[in-house]
Amino acid sequence: MNRLFRAVAVGLLAAVGVAFAADDKPNPAATPRDSRLKQDYWKKRHESFVARAAKGDVDVLFLGDSITQGWEGAGKAVWADSFKGWKAANFGIGGDRTEDVLWRITGGKELNGIDPKLAVIMIGTNNVGSNSAEQIAGGVKAILDALHKAKPKTQVLLLGVFPRSGKAVLQTDTAATVLQPKIKQINDLISKFDDGKTVHYLDFGAKFLNDKGELPKALMPDYLHLSAAGYRIWADAIAKPVEALLKK
Questions:
Q1: Active-site option among 65, 203, 225, 227
Q2: 82 an active-site residue?
Q3: What's the predicted TM-score (pTM) here?
Q4: Which of 59, 66, 145, 194 is catalytic?
Q5: DSSP string of 181-227?
Q6: Predicted confidence (pLDDT) per residue in 117-162, tens digit
Q7: Domain 58-97+115-246 belongs to what architecture?
């Protein structure tokens, strides 16, 4: 490819939110994806977010996948008890990957009508099977950039990807490296996005583990999604950071 043409093409794609890896190939985890619009449930949920945003009055916005969406299921009572004073909205959709959330912020315009003081973001676990840790981190960075382009004053509480596993007993040396090693790799990378100004990283994954470094079924029945007790841990872990960031 002609160097000038290649440089122009890369620049144009970057301008619309397509991130590139070191070899200049588009990073799929950081390329906005709207293919889930073909799924009726996903489309309706996305449209409900657009409608909710149009009403305004959201101070704390939760963005993520099924684990975030679960605040409306297993975590419903904990949400009502813990977040009632926050003017919080849940924009989680089951099965979402980084590229889906990225499209929802950009092409999907889910933030139109709201100016949240804080966004709580936890995303990336659904990318684990098909993307590298570096690609997933790139997808998270693209989300942060798109969010701040649309809402420059919004603070972000970026959560480390939660631990997960298909096995009840995990053989590892420390709680810090348990479960899928890629989760730790992702979290090590995204932790560097904490700039102490608008992005604040928080990893409390170890709170879901017992004293043997195992993931109890009582907290994650399928070793991925949280029980009510798991949501209580989440709520307690972010309570003080959220309150502090809302005062910024």
A1: 225
A2: no
A3: 0.87
A4: 66
A5: HHHHHHHHHHGGG--SSSEEEE--GGGGS-TTS---TTT-TTSSS--
A6: 999 999 999 999 899 999 999 999 999 999 999 999 999 999 999 9
A7: 3-Layer(aba) Sandwich (3.40)
